[in-house]
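Do me a favour: review this protein, sequence plus structure tokens, and tell me how the chain folds. Record follows.
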Amino acid sequence: MPVKNGSLGPNTVVNSNQKQTKNNNQAHSWRQAEVTKGYARKARECDAAVLGDDTPFTDKLASYGEEGRVLGPTVGCWCEASSDFDLLVELIAHVLAA
């Protein structure tokens, strides 16, 4: 039986099978994108402490993955998982199956 709850937001429908909000569906994806931005920001801060124009931290970060993209496996408050989380699960399953 669906229940409307104003404290969760106007688009919230909560029942025993599905618990999510319209805005909450994107929270885990947003956080996943913020992980790479956070690493890049921290690398720039560390580079600022290096004498000269060298950027060893940013250069090292850029050497990982695709243009320095860091995987950010995240899970939302209703157990919805980001695409990076799914990649991690697939990797673990592949390694365990081998």
User: Anything to note?
Assistant: DSSP finds three helices and two strands in the chain.
